[in-house]
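Predict the 3D structure for this chain.
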Amino acid sequence: MQFDAVIFDCDGVLVDSEILGLDQSAAYLREHGFGFTPADLVRLFTGLRDDVFFDRLGEEYFTINGRAPEAAFFDGLLAVRRSRRDELLPVPGAQAALAAMVLPMAVASSSRTQFLVSKLKRTGLYRFFDPHIYSADRVADGKPAPDIFLYTAEKIAVEPARCLVIEDSENGVLAGCAAGMTVWGFVGGGHCFDGHGQALARAGAVRIVDNFTDLAALLDA
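Done. Predicted structure below.
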């Protein structure tokens, strides 16, 4: 099928941010009774807006510790997650592939607007998408709800069924499918462990793409 626009997730697709601080986050959570491995964190929480992530993590914290977490728990986790942000780089091949892209493009991300814009600017990718950079803090419900993808389609004036979504998370794939869009799973980020592509396919991705070179070739075809 031909598409009229491509909508990219940001973290783990455009910027290689999901891997940064992942081991440290798992270690921090172990100190608070959790048994999550880095791969568990990717599988369970990647792609979620902060409020959804904190709600789910808070529920697990209560199950483990018998009480609700204090704000300091979340503050400490955020500090760990952001401790290596100066090391942020674009996903390999992103710059060249985006520069050659013909179809209209947009970003639909769970990151808050200020962080989303900052990450894209720091990695030199902002220019490819401006002004079509949309954060889920603009909509009622974050991924896996379809709101941010439907909002983005409305803003770029493209029917959802004519949009291709590039996603690296199960939550993002579910959101894109719920929006009535075609979703390709992307496994070119550093956080994509063994079995990641199969998980994206089970969530509804109709194609798994290994890297930006392959993505550009598929879109050209």
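The chain has eleven helices and six strands.
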